[in-house]
Amino acid sequence: MKNPKPWYRRTWVVTGLAVAVLFAILFMVPVPYYIVQPGSALEVRPMIRVEGTETREKGGFFMTTVSMREGNVLGILASRLDPRFELVPKDKVLMEGEDPEDYQRRQVEIMDRSQQNAVLAAFRETGKKVKEKLLGVRVFRVLKEMPAEKVLKEGDLITKVDGKKVRSSEELIAYLKGKSVGDKVQLQVKRKGDILVEEVKLGNLGKTGTKERPGIGIEPVTERKIQTDPKVTVQADDIGGPSAGLMFTLEIINQLTNGNLTHGYRVAGTGTITPEGKVGQIGGIQHKIIAAEEENVDIFFVPADTHPGDSNEKRAKETARKIGADLKLVPVENLEDALTFLEKQERKNQAS
């Protein structure tokens, strides 16, 4: 007869199993949330190169980020104890039929478009040479169970609709608004060098008020080519989203003018940018204020609340007050507001 294992060995086995089960529950059990928390404040100067220019200022422009990851039980518990952790329902982050990989790919694509907008805004503001050529509507993603699923593929370039040229996603959306669900439209599409003509029956993208919204069922992006003199290169690695637009624009202007826009200050901020220089609202502003404060930022540009539902300015002020942030919060509606503020800083408080 075999001797039973010593009690302490059995205890270690039970403890090990309990730890493994607890680990699985805390880290591996999926929950329908994303965990959002402060990211970092990153200097944008190393990300941007304007040929033939050089700046040696002591200050710098910083973009701010949030950290976002798929949620787990541990994250839910942490959010109850630490207000820096925010739980965001997955359906508020992911589009219908989108998985986390699709989401990250979409964010990188949005970042690319934001960089293009920043280049256009900066060159137009400084009067430098820039050419923009709109090439059509690129199919970034085909929505499942929609008419386009049987006709279009990711990467297709739509150049005409019902025989009329379509140069941007805005033009395509505006044209389809005049149609009804069930109508048919003819699309001219470029696919790997071939020209195709396809007919698509419009589906229902949901309702705007009481009216059904007709669409072909794609996530469109405007395909365009930008040429500048001097040449600009932007390299932001895998950072996604549109919210660095304003800060990219300011850094490009700084390099184009060989100037000292920061006047020695650490200037952070956030906000989308249009080619015309208008600054737009973003998500996670409270986390970005915390990230900027932790990097000892002096000035923070925040999108001004100008329309019903806007809340960036309000939430930024609430967060700055709550954490006792030692930074100057500056609401801006457009690029000109930010530039005007920086110019006044030179007269009022020249940095050494």
TrEMBL record:
Question: What enzyme class is recorded for this protein?
Answer: hydrolase
Keywords of this entry: Hydrolase, Membrane, Protease, Serine protease, Transmembrane, Transmembrane helix
Q: Which organism is it from?
A: Melghirimyces profundicolus
Q: What are the residue boundaries of the Lon proteolytic domain, all occurrences included? A: 238-345
Q: What are the transmembrane regions?
A: 12-35
Q: Active site located where? A: S243, K288
Tell me which family the UniProt entry assigns to this protein.
Belongs to the peptidase S16 family.
| Gene3D superfamilies from the UniProt entry | 2.30.42.10, 3.30.230.10
Question: Which residues does the UniProt record annotate as the domain PDZ?
Answer: 107-193
The record ties this protein, via PANTHER family, to:
ATP DEPENDENT LON PROTEASE FAMILY MEMBER (PTHR10046)
A Gene Ontology molecular function term for this protein is: ATP binding
The UniProt entry's GO biological process terms, in alphabetical order, are:
protein catabolic process; proteolysis
Name the UniProt record assigns to this protein: endopeptidase La
Enzyme Commission identifier(s): 3.4.21.53
> According to its UniProt record, which reaction does this protein catalyse?
Hydrolysis of proteins in presence of ATP
